[in-house]
Amino acid sequence: MSACGETSHFYGFREGMNEMKARGLMVARMVAALVAALGAMLVGCRADCPSPEAVVMDRRSTRTLCVGDPWGDAALTSTTWPDAAGMTTTTDAMAESGLTESIGSTAMSTSMIMSEASSFAEQSESSINGDSPFCGNGIQEAGEACDDGNVVDDDACLSTCVEAKCGDGFVWADMEVCDDGNADDDDRCLGTCVPATCGDGHLNKVDESCDDGNVWSGDGCDSSCDLEYLMFATQAVFPGSFGTKAAADIKCQNEAAASGLPGTYVAWLSFSLGDLALAALPAGERLMRTDGVSIVFAAEALLKGDNTALMASVSLDAKGDSVAGFAWTGTLASGEPGADCSMWKAPENLGLVGSLNGKDAKWTQAGLSGCDELHHLYCFRRKDD
Hints:
Among the domains are: about 15-130, no CATH class; about 230-380, Mannose-Binding Protein A, Chain A, CATH 3.10.100. About 30% of the residues are buried. The strands form 4 sheets. Strands 8, 9, 10, 11, 12, 13, 14 and 15 form an 8-stranded mixed beta sheet that branches. A 3-stranded antiparallel beta sheet has the order 1-2-3. The longest helix is centred in the N-terminal third of the chain and has 19 residues, at about 110-130. Helix content is about 15%, strand content about 15%. Helix 1 (about 20-40) runs antiparallel to helix 3 (about 110-130). By secondary structure, it is an alpha+beta fold. Keywords: Disulfide bond, Repeat, Signal. This is Myxococcus cysteine-rich repeat-containing protein.
């Protein structure tokens, strides 16, 4: 405190203004402009200046002027002195109309400078006191969930002063590996902000055809998360009187579903009126058993007549267990229809069967059987529409 009873700074800055150096610099420039306009310099306090006013002295040190605190109630004292050119510098009605200097034809209103400086300082003080929140100042204020004093988006508090969370589109260093701005699990970054990987049980539609939560083969989705087209023999056996192709397909689908195999499964069964087993074959796709062993590299290789040569017999069921015997086919090794128990309706007729252990043409064309006999069905995965 000075002898004047207020701070010795010209504008009596409050202690809080020290925290706003940048704003204070602007106020200081205003002060400098005022002193320059008066042709004077700030010299401090004197006994005959009423508190809390300060005194300025002109450049020639011939006259002095008492100037009040812009935040205080004291009026600015009127003082007049002659300059070297015989002109007069006058301050009057300072409290009401402002301090004005006339040198030649130049005039400056100090009341305007005082008003603007005071207003600016009040705004600065308001910000310090938290009345006007400023995100990034390191002080958590009203309307902010956090404020860590920076404007980066890779930590626990974003540059918008909201707390970081998975799905906000910003990667939180050391906490998140990825963040694509959503909570979906069907892309390359999961809803938990970790990268999608084959075997995590979430289908990454960008890179995966399937994902069954493991990296095993022979279950319809291989270790690279590509679809597997499996072929198996039913565990159950049936007479040759299914009635319709759809009824036989349902028996295949039921066993596949019971074993957890994904996709749509249909029966390898032909009808003499044109409904051929090969119609639903996944052309170009490798057919596999449920133990991961390949049957053929391309589905159409099942039908090569006398030259048919399977890599492995279709002798496992949907669970991977071995089965033996015969399967109803109604299909020749060429793919053409054969005996079909009168459209799979007459148990007294004959139907064509294949050998489950066959790897040549006999796999589908082993001989005829009475339609009242019980045999398995071959089932394979078709391509979904």
